[in-house]
Write a structure and sequence with these properties.
This protein is an alpha+beta fold. The chain is built from four helices and seven strands, in the order H-H-E-H-H-E-E-E-E-E-E. Helix content is about 30%, strand content about 20%. The radius of gyration is 18 Å and the shape is globular.
Length: about 140
């Protein structure tokens, strides 16, 4: 196999993965917001990047609190935050430790408020994580005018 064939195959795999990831992430985002998605109304959401709906700073609202220099358990680092998967992932972005699985350079994540909780959709397809915390525990509060 020559170099051109390898590069062409790699490019084709990248295009298919990017397209599939965008389609799947857009569908997951529509499900997260519980909307009947349409291209005209919502557009597409690039996998793990800004899409339709409200976005929030993950570094501020899901910031971990490291109890000591030696670290701690996930429950100590991320009190009151839970994952739909049953186990929470702790990630880093630059020098910030956050309480959810985020993709590379994902400073903003989709969020919604329902049933007294703030819900976040972190990560990118196929590694999304839906995490929640009670509204009284959120770092960023919003008021309506």
């Amino acid at each position: 196999m020559n170099l051109k064939a390898v590069l062409a195959a790699a490019f084709l795999v990248w295009v298919v993965y990017t397209t599939l990831g965008t389609v799947m992430y857009t569908a997951r985002l529509a499900s997260f917001y519980e909307v009947d998605w349409s291209l005209e109304t919502h557009g597409i959401a690039i996998n793990g990047k800004t899409g339709f709906g409200d976005m929030i700073s993950v570094a501020h609202d899901l910031s971990a609190s490291i109890p000591s220099a030696s670290g701690g358990t996930v429950n100590e680092i991320c009190p009151g935050i839970s994952s739909e998967r049953g186990h929470l992932t702790v990630s880093t972005i630059d020098d910030n430790v956050v309480c959810c699985h985020i993709s590379e350079n994902q400073w903003l994540v989709p969020f919604k408020e329902a049933d007294g909780k703030r819900h976040y959709l972190c990560g990118a397809w196929p590694f999304e994580e839906h995490v929640t915390q009670n509204l009284e525990n959120v770092a960023l509060n919003f008021t309506s005018l």
